[in-house]
Amino acid sequence: MAIPRITVLVSGRGSNLGALIDAERQGRLGGTVAAVLCDRADAAALAIAAEQGIATQVIEHRAFANRDAFEAALAAAIDASEPDLIVLAGFMRVLGAAFVARYAGRMLNIHPSLLPSYPGLDTHKRALADGVRVHGCTVHFVTADVDHGPIVMQGAIAVHDEDDESTLAARVLTVEHKLLAAAVRAFCERRLVIAGRRVRVKGEAVPPAALVVPSPFAPTIPRAVDPCDFP
Ligand code: GRF
Question: Which CATH number is associated with domain 5-224?
Fold first, then answer.
């Protein structure tokens, strides 16, 4: 069977794109990043792709009369790259219903929150303002309802008392990189089964039952005697 082709849509920094490229080089992506499409000519992501010899194309919104014309050009570029999977990795434009429907079931997005909490922008700031103890990221299938498509995988981290927006964003980002590569691999290996709003991931290890934060089982004050020392 041919190796699945992945087209990645980006707008900026490109660290998630970099994580996908690294995973491919290390033989743990299950597919190949065949093309990178970007809506900003100044995006750092373009250099990351170019360094690896991956075809890039810039399609800037402002070059088109309206959203339909922009999306038609974007769809033409996607189709020309013949992808099995399209990944939105920090692609900052909201896509219309017809565009999304064209790629139903084969377009993934990475979002920096535990959806359905905090769709949209400023997720880390909003999570901190709400005082949540657990935060994270989500990979989901893209539907017309922005940030509400069927959830494929989520990664959770504890929010620390000392966290600010940038420390929290940095820790979530390291999880994003692992999560996105794992979700893409599961797609490429045909292990994702969409059933309504739920996605079954075949062949995944059973996750730990619970993440409790703060943990009642790990006191912050060190104990003189480790309970494990008792017979
Ligand atoms: C990530 O936090 C991603 O979840 C969000 O946009 C950011 C893109 O970062 N959708 P990068 O361009 O992949 O570094």
Answer: 3.40.50.170
